[in-house]
């Protein structure tokens, strides 16, 4: 217990101490994780081990495009849903990465943690990424600053605690281009995001249980949001299968420009068992939603049904299911989807039924593939539209819609020095009142490859594509956003075991695509640096 107390104390002290270095930034937020080095085959986007279909399908979220400008790539499609993303490798060396690039870009990534210990793990991570100049578009600067710390005790009854602080700034660089002079302080948006959570978990022969408490404080100039959550997951061995009881509750309070107090409660009992060659997961999802400062309260119920079976043993697996849930819309998750929000938002909470089916398989040990069909029925889906003010920031409208998705993915591990993969998605939408599903694409795709040369040089190539999209503003004027074709190239040279250099060249075609209406990407950008293991 003394060690646990010591860990938590160290986390708090480090958090407060280092948090002071990131005040005074006047730049722009980036929400996607940046990896400056070109990674080995086992560390690229997907792992040649098929994802077990019994895992919950990805939740529908309005994600394209979810950044305004990021140096890594103009656009990254959704994460792979068929082939497992690799479990992060345990690091036992502290490291620091330092880099820079055009647009006066500065980059720092550092990780400090304890080495191997039988029962205890703890560490601290720092990250800074910023650009201090921007032309065409003007004032499209950005800054991302993050510090996080964690502590873990593993002794049967596991205890975990973490705290995380992000400070980011965005500028409304899509403003009306007129004769008015606009300083950065007139068009910036500063985001402060503090999260903390503590988790207890128990694993025994016939009982597994976890209890997770979380708190988030999110601030966006003029608006403050506090969110408290608790989640309790239970699994009991009963008869031929496992009985699950998943419970959760979230309370969110927003003050200042808008005001709400919301409570979400989730209860999902379900039973997983095998019958002959089939694995079934049967249950019920119940969601309760209440606006505590009004008389609004709703109860949603949906089946929780999943079925899987091998059509060819260890080669081809089929799965299908029906599920439903409610999305907890908050200022934080809206802000991380669209960095250029105004203060006149409506906060709808989409409720979605999903009907899906798919196949996972492999032809040989070198080829993995997956295909999936999914129909979604969505009530109260929000869309981002442009405001008509001078800053041309964004607000939201809501509408019911249906969405059909066809998703495919394939990966070839040609040999130990070369692999290549392709994933793509086709979407079809039907909206009720709106003319179009604003800012949503009809397709997106990615082609990616890694080449290893002479055990020291690693080359990574990526091609991202997405369709044209439609947008509108509050005056019902519509706009067409062109298709995106983005090519990125990276290289890492491993000089020694503990020293390597990297360079990435992004948006090689030097196109300034419109990611959001009136908000274009930067052109070609380069980042280079070195990595030291300590």
Features:
mainly beta; 22-stranded antiparallel beta barrel; globular; about 525 residues; two-stranded antiparallel ribbon; Maltoporin, Chain A
Count of folded domains: 1
Average predicted confidence as pLDDT: 82
The CATH architecture is: Beta Barrel
Helix content: under 10%
CATH superfamily: TonB-dependent receptor, beta-barrel domain
N-to-C series of helices and strands = HEEEEEHEEEEEEEEHEEEEEEEEEEEEE
Gyration radius (Cα, Å) is 24 Å
Structural class: mainly beta
Which band does the percent of strand residues land in? Answer: over 45%
Stated plainly, the CATH topology is called Maltoporin, Chain A
Q: What is the general shape?
A: globular
Can you count the helices? 3
Report on this model:
The chain is globular and about 70 Å long. 5% of the residues lie in helices and 58% in strands. The model is unreliable at 1-82 and 84-92 (pLDDT under 50). The longest helix has 17 residues, at 2-18. The protein is built from three helices and 26 strands. Strand 8 (223-238) and strand 9 (241-256) form a beta hairpin. The protein has a 22-stranded antiparallel beta barrel. The chain has a single domain (2-533), classed as Maltoporin, Chain A, CATH 2.40.170. It is mainly beta. The chain has helices spanning 2-18, 184-187, 331-337, and strands at residues 95-101, 105-113, 120-131, 142-153, 157-171, 188-203, 207-220, 223-238, 241-256, 260-275, 278-291, 297-312, 316-326, 351-364, 367-386, 394-415, 418-431, 443-453, 457-466, 469-472, 478-481, 484-496, 499-506, 514-516, 519-520, 525-533.
